[in-house]
Specification:
This protein is an alpha+beta fold. The chain contains 11 helices and 33 strands.
Length: about 675
């Protein structure tokens, strides 16, 4: 070990009391003091992903890294998961968030702590960092949320633009049924282990049923959302996101709307860690996090807050493929967001063209039918991730079945940073219809690369809280917000906007057959609005691009992932199949296996009838106990309802330990 690094002591199952008497289970990684009385700041990650087995290896790597550099690491199982007491009634409950507050204050009061606490987390842990910061614990000084959201309705795995999510909803919702059914650690629960576990199983309900009942924005989604009250966070923030992740937009929204000290980093990454995920280039994000925490938790004057507020990777055209190792482009920076050098660039839709000149000819329209199975050349999910969750391929096959509007070749580079917007004049023969807009880069050879995309349930055109059915003869002006992007269109390339009615399997199809119409020209000036940049920003900081120095621990392996698209010509359906699995062996030879199989089918001739089925398996071999969790979730739709069938079976040492099923029919509310 280099002399600059601290030796580390690890403490398991440290019990942290919550205000309602529930005991939370935490693992602590503490630096060994170099002199009497030396104290350290603490950094917390709180998630439901089982610190003692499922996340054991990654926790030890990352928390050891922090402790070696003088930060006490705390990994907390949220209530009702892992070895913490209580019930996981839902994700991001108020009780869970107050647990985070209590954990922060407990850590700050420990004799080894200097009184300053930070939080970090990826995805769920990023959510909890934001949510706990909203409560303003006195000793929480800084947070590093990665791939997280400020708005649980508009930017998460449940609904997009008022449309129900399919692929990500299925993956996460059913996997959590299996995860939540896993037992507390035998060594910690004691002789009442089986009784405690069975009580938890009997009282924990599937979260997905609640989510399906909450189809519009409401107090349910505002709970745990920072939006619209961005001043509730007062501690410093370092926001980390990826252009190909599903949580890109919150990074720029929080940079624009929050008032606390803040900075942001946006790379090309999917929902994978910036030092190892795709697409590159990669960097040592843990080094950057330590610099940030060192400033805010130790008072180090290391210049981290003197750097530009926003550093991002400005993408350029790269041949599309689902799992690219690295993308063309360059790191660039801005002293603020939005940059003062931003201008709005409008391109009007004409007869298959995009033009900066307003069309004065009378209003005309283009028609496109509702194709429920359209969109499979795109990414498997709204945001990419580990295989099989890959990115969009060449979109020409999708565009052949959609409206497209294309610009002339550019004569000079065009830089875009922020949120594109499509202002469209639309009409539909159905009371419920969706619009899917894609902004693409057309290379000189005709290859089409996805740059950004936007989705809107047209019944949500005025409000996500109060949807209104469409009237068949009425033309509506709608504004479709596209996903944030930082992109340079190169000379010789053309911009293209495509318009369709579906994005399978990312969103659930709208239920009615429909003919849709896009109006353009005088009186109905459909157009694309781009936030473009002129001039130059700030030089980017120099990043450490070598891998973080993480300990080598345990073993991991897995079967090949699967991503298949199957067209049934006779049944006129399109089925998307996905599979992934993983086995981890811990140092004490504990074994945990996980797998997920997903089938999603939509009908070309009956858009109301879609179906998804997910099968999740968890196996845990520990201390002579063999636990097997088998969870399945099925959602079928008709014009009027979603029909949900959830099955859970828990086996212990080869015999049935627990079994339960949930069957519900949930009305569709204009989705």
């Amino acid at each position: 070990m280099p002399p600059s690094l601290y030796p580390v002591q690890t403490h398991y199952n440290v019990r942290i009391p919550a205000r309602d008497g529930v005991e939370l289970s935490a693992n602590l990684w503490l630096p060994v003091p170099r002199h009497p009385g030396e104290t350290f700041p603490a950094v917390v990650e709180m998630i439901p992903y089982r610190k003692d087995d499922y996340r054991y290896l990654a926790d030890h790597q990352r928390m050891t890294y922090l402790a070696q550099r003088g930060f006490a690491g705390c990994r907390l199982d949220i209530r009702g998961t892992g070895s913490s007491q209580g019930l996981a009634r839902d994700e991001y409950t108020p009780e869970e968030t107050w647990d985070g507050y209590d954990a922060v204050e407990w850590l700050a009061a420990q004799p080894w702590c200097n009184g300053n606490v930070g939080m970090w987390g990826k995805s769920y842990g990023g959510f909890t960092a934001i949510q706990v910061a909203m409560l303003q614990p006195p000793h929480l000084k800084a947070i590093v949320p990665m791939y997280a959201t400020d708005d649980r309705y508009t930017d998460d795995v449940h609904y997009l633009g008022g449309c129900m999510v399919a692929s990500e909803f299925a993956q996460y919702a059913v996997s959590q049924i299996g995860m939540n059914a896993m037992p507390p650690k035998v060594d910690y629960a004691g002789p009442q282990w089986a009784t405690q576990w069975k009580q938890r199983l009997e009282q924990t309900t599937p979260w997905l049923i609640t989510w399906l009942k909450q189809q519009t924005d409401s107090a349910y989604w505002r709970s745990g959302s920072l939006a619209p009250h961005y001043d509730r966070i007062q501690c410093a923030m370092y926001l980390i996101g990826g252009w190909h992740d599903g949580y890109t937009d919150p990074v720029l929204r929080m940079m624009e709307k929050c008032t606390a000290p803040r900075k942001a980093l946006l790379g090309n990454w999917t929902h994978t860690l910036p030092h190892s995920g795709y697409p590159g280039p990669n960097l040592d994000w843990m080094h950057e996090m330590v610099r940030f925490f060192d400033h805010w938790l130790n008072g180090a004057e290391n210049g981290v807050m003197d750097e530009p507020a926003l550093t991002y990777y400005r993408r350029e055209y790269t041949d599309p493929e689902p799992f690219p190792l690295e993308l063309n482009g360059a790191w660039v920076a801005e002293p603020e967001y939005p940059p003062t050098r931003t201008t709005k660039h409008e391109l009007y839709l004409g007869d298959k063209i995009l033009n900066s000149q307003f069309f004065i000819h009378p209003s005309q329209f283009d028609s496109y039918p509702h194709l429920p199975t359209h969109g499979t050349r795109g990414a498997l999910c709204w945001g990419g991730g580990s295989a099989p969750n890959g990115l969009a391929r060449d979109l020409r096959p999708d565009e052949a079945l959609a409206l497209t509007y294309t610009s002339d070749p550019l004569v000079e580079p065009l830089d875009v940073l922020g949120f594109p917007e499509a202002i469209l004049y639309l009409r539909s023969t159905a009371p419920v219809a969706h619009v899917v807009v894609r902004l693409n880069d057309v290379a000189p050879d005709g290859t089409v690369l996805a740059v950004s995309k936007g989705i809107l349930n047209l019944t949500h055109r005025n409000s996500h809280a109060h949807p209104e059915p469409l009237q068949p003869d009425e033309v509506y002006e709608v504004r479709v917000n596209l996903k944030a992007t930082g992109y340079r269109f190169l000379p010789g390339h053309r911009l293209r906007l495509s318009v369709a009615s579906a994005y399978w399997p990312v969103i659930w199809p709208s239920p009615y057959p429909a003919e849709n119409f896009l109006h353009r020209g005088a009186g109905t000036p459909s157009r694309l609005v781009l936030p473009t940049l002129s001039g130059h920003g700030s030089p980017p900081p120099a990043f450490k691009t070598s891998l973080p120095d993480l300990i080598d621990i345990g073993e991991e392996s897995g079967p090949p992932p699967v991503w298949q698209i199957i067209q049934d010509v006779i049944q006129q359906t399109v089925t998307v199949k996905a599979f992934s699995g993983d086995t981890s062996i811990l140092p004490d030879r504990t074994r945990i296996y996980t797998s997920e199989r997903l089938d999603m089918t939509a009908s070309e001739r009956d858009p109301a009838r879609a179906h998804l089925f997910n099968e999740v398996v968890y196996e845990l071999d520990e201390n002579g106990y063999q636990t097997r969790i088998h969870a399945t979730g099925s959602i079928r739709s008709t014009v009027t309802d979603f029909h949900v069938d959830v099955q859970l079976r828990v086996d212990l040492n080869g015999g049935l330990f627990f079994q339960k099923s949930w069957l519900e029919s949930i009305p569709r509310n204009l989705v």
